[in-house]
Design a protein that fits this description.
Radius of gyration: 51 Å
Largest sheet: none
Shape: elongated
Helix content: over 70%
Number of helices: 21
Number of strands: 0
Distance between the termini: 105 Å
Length: about 575
């Protein structure tokens, strides 16, 4: 029990004793009044009685009065004794409280020791001292200044000359690299947050100028996908930004596309409707920009509509068809026709909700208008020519796709300065930093040639005036040599064969296949590549398909060179037909 509680208890007991004493006094006064009244009644009643009776009565009254008086006097004596004992207990408790307070004071004085001033003056957080943000910034600036002064003093030569910054061999510290990483993250996130149709051109230039996208490609990919999924209405803007970056740095475009595919797989497995709709919308915008192949969009629609689809999956498929409908109708009209037939079958089956049926009917009306209300690209976002765009033929079911999440976090780079110098060179090539110098050099060369021509004309005039002809030296002629580079690795040939094979296998009809193959612009001399690929695909089938024969006949009707090439291919196949295995027949 604490000292305060003990004081309160003592006061409470004293108050009770006082109340009891007051009640006792009241009772004493009432008894006196009652005895006086009885005496008056007895005197009136015994006035006619005898003296002996009166004496005995008076004796009894006096005895009773004396006994009553004696009893009344003994009660306040007990109260006084209890009151004195309570006061003694209070004094003993107070003395104990004083002794405990003194003891506690001695303990606190012996245990508490003042903190040393060095912990506060040092300004470090190791001792639990709070440093305000402005004070921390001042300390960091002071530290940087000291480091710069130390570096300058080390780089000074004996003659007092200072070495160039590029010749430094010292490695950048961990703290500096981490600070650069944070600045890079802020630059990328700030650029993407301020991106819209009107500011995209200026922000693309500032992005290449202020951010090392090779080092921060993981941050860029993460920020673009997060922005596209959180605000689907701006997905075409982010796709346009990625299309420009992809022409300069294709590895970034491939990383974003791979992460988008993996995000769709994850969201579809978790049945996350909002994330699935937003990521498919972004993939559709990438297809409109030419970053991914049409097979990826058809695979997405097949997965969403195959089997017994739910209302959510059908709604996501409707939204994706609106986004890619115009571009898909140009590249694969048979594919979009098959998708619309699937939607029509779902309407007839009646296995979906009323709201989704209305959305499918709305999609049918949009298709009748040839997707005019949902254009593939708008003028403000059409920033890259289709010939310059790099397309990635990545499928939805491809194996070995890696998210590369280690690119999203900071890692110490031992070759930091070398990589920064490489990025500076790439940055100049992208932004055209050397173009001004080249223009200036060309102009200076032209001026020099003009001056030489003027000097030659003046000299000729002087010779004519003297009457003596002098031989003038021949003028300088600049010879331009055109260097042709031959690719001996045959990488272009492998890519051509791959495109031909994918086109043949992905087309629904022979007209579509012939149209796509004709758009590949196969150069003269490479006709046999297409013909051999058609023959090999036909030989892999279980039975003969008219599909391949109709493709060959269509090409023979297109140009005379194809008919001659097919004649040569027939002779070669007839001469080597005995080499084929009988199992293929």
């Amino acid at each position: 029990m604490s000292a305060i509680q003990e004081d309160a208890l003592v006061d409470y007991e004293a108050d009770e004793e006082e109340d009891e004493e007051e009640e006792y006094q009241k009772e004493k006064g009432d008894k006196k009044k009652s005895t006086k009244a009885k005496k008056g009644d007895d005197s009136s009643s015994t006035s006619s009685s005898s003296d002996s009776g009166s004496s005995s009565d008076s004796g009894s009254v006096s005895g009773s009065s004396s006994s009553s008086n004696g009893g009344k006097k003994s009660v306040p004596k007990r109260k006084k004794e209890s009151r004195t004992s309570a006061s003694n207990d209070r004094e003993s408790r107070q003395s104990k409280m004083d002794e405990g307070a003194v003891r506690n004071a001695t303990v606190t004085t012996t245990t508490t020791t003042p903190k040393p001033k060095s912990a506060i003056s040092s300004g470090t957080a190791a001792h639990g001292v709070y440093i305000p943000p402005f004070r921390r910034r001042q300390m960091e600036q002071l530290k940087k200044q000291q480091e710069e002064e130390a570096a300058k003093s080390k780089n000074e030569n004996e003659d007092g000359e200072i070495k160039a910054h590029d010749d430094k061999t010292e490695t950048v510290t961990m703290d500096d690299q981490r600070q650069k990483w944070e600045d890079l993250k802020k630059a990328i996130n700030g650029t993407i947050n301020r991106l819209n149709k009107t500011t995209i051109k200026d922000l693309i230039h500032s992005l290449f100028q202020n951010a090392n996208l090779i080092r921060g490609k993981g941050l860029f990919a993460k920020s673009v996908i997060r922005a596209a999924t959180t605000s689907p209405s701006y997905a075409p803007v982010y796709a346009s930004l990625l299309a420009v970056v992809n022409t300069k740095l294709p590895e970034i475009g491939e990383l974003v596309l791979v992460r988008s595919i993996l995000t769709f797989r994850k969201s579809y497995a978790r049945q996350d409707r909002s994330l699935t709709m937003s990521i498919t919308n972004f993939i559709g915008c990438l297809f409109n920009q030419g970053l991914c192949h049409e097979l990826l969009c058809l695979q997405l629609l097949t997965v969403l509509l195959d089997g017994d689809p739910t209302d959510d999956s059908v709604e996501v498929a409707v939204q994706l068809t609106k986004v890619v409908g115009m571009a898909l109708s140009e590249s694969s009209p048979a594919g979009i026709h098959a998708v619309m037939e699937r939607f029509r079958n779902l309407l007839h089956d009646g296995s979906i909700g009323r709201r989704v049926e209305y959305k499918i009917e709305e999609l049918m009306g949009v298709r009748k208008k040839r997707f005019r209300d949902y254009p593939a690209l708008i003028e403000e976002l059409d920033l890259v020519e289709r010939e310059e765009q790099i397309m990635f033929e990545i499928g939805l079911d491809d194996e070995g796709l890696k998210k590369e999440e280690e690119l999203d976090v900071f890692n110490f780079d031992e070759n930091y300065m070398e990589n920064e110098n490489d990025w500076v060179a790439i940055q100049k090539e992208i932004l055209g930093g050397d173009s001004d110098d080249e223009d200036g050099s060309d102009e200076s060369d032209d001026e020099d040639t003009d001056d030489d021509d003027d000097d030659d004309s003046d000299d000729s005039d002087e010779d004519d005036e003297d009457g003596v002809l002098k031989q003038t030296p021949p003028t300088r002629q600049i010879s331009k040599q055109i260097v042709t580079i031959q690719d001996m690795t045959e990488k272009d040939l492998i890519n051509l064969r791959r495109k031909i094979y994918l086109t043949i296998m992905s087309s629904a009809t022979f007209e579509e296949c012939a149209h796509k193959l004709a758009k590949l612009d196969i150069p003269p001399g490479k006709e046999m590549e297409l013909i051999n690929m058609v023959i090999e695909c036909c030989s892999q089938e279980r039975t003969f398909l008219r599909y391949y024969g109709l493709i060959a006949s269509r090409f023979c009707l297109l140009d005379q060179r194809w008919s001659g090439a097919f004649h040569e291919a027939f002779q070669d196949q007839y001469n080597t037909i005995h080499r084929l295995e009988l199992i293929n027949f």
